[in-house]
Amino acid sequence: MAGVEIRELECFLVLAEELHFGRAGERLFVSQSRVSQLLRALERRVGARLVDRTSRRVGLTPFGEEFAASLRPAYEALAATVDRARAAAREEAVRMRVGFQGLIYAGVAEAVVEFHGRFPGHRVDLTEIPLSDPFGALRAGELEAAVVLLPVEEPDLRVLARLPDQRQMVAVQAGHALAGREAVAAEELAGLSLVPLSGDAPEYWKRAQSPVATPKGRPIPQMPGVSTLQEGLTRVASGLGAMMLCEATAEHNRRDDVAYVPVDGTPPSRLALVGRTDGGTPELKALAEAVEGGYWG
């Protein structure tokens, strides 16, 4: 196989079908003399004549007939493999992978539906990413974008679209003294032990999700961290601390052993569609516009 040119094999198989140098050249979009050159090169490599050519007719030699019969299935299998690879490459080129933390909010899901309507040849794949690692999959190139909690202060990432602010809630055990309250003042968080997120997220991001001090500077005790929301809520339900989360997340994670109480006096929880600063396509921009339009339009 060393040194064999695919073009030579293709030319020989076409010539074996046409038995005419001119028609073979037309199918291959080359001149008749080029067909002759490719055939001679292949015959030199094989070490035998493959075609008999006279002024009146073109025919395969017995060796050429045997060679063509053996070659055609292998060539067709190779062509099919290349076609499948091309199809997969096209699919990859129009596939957009978007991550989310915890849950996909209704506005984001609606934006994906709108995007598919505008770009029927494209597909958005939604993938859950760890709550404790909002940026890892983006940096690894596994995602084109992700819906993550703000803030994002990473130089290699940028905010593509912002989602509406969400009221901050504190999750406490159902039997906790705060469970029946309509709201909790931010200063009262100093009397709780918060369960923060652990993992590879930057410290500033972790502190935004689980503050270490009240607005007036009173320290808020911190429990050992967790890497998932369900792990944190299990701690809360067991009376091993409280957890901060946004109102929409609380609404989607209702359970009898946990109470969610609004917190007054803290900044709202914010989400955004985030991508890499060195990335960006017209399709990703269209998705970002659909996300913002779905909420704000």
TrEMBL record:
HTH lysR-type domain span: 4-61
Signal peptide: none
Domain of life of the organism encoding this protein: Bacteria
Keywords: DNA-binding, Transcription, Transcription regulation
Pfam families in alphabetical order: HTH_1, LysR_substrate
Transcription recorded as keyword: yes
PANTHER family membership: HCA OPERON TRANSCRIPTIONAL ACTIVATOR HCAR, TRANSCRIPTIONAL DUAL REGULATOR HCAR-RELATED
Family: Belongs to the LysR transcriptional regulatory family.
Protein name: LysR family transcriptional regulator
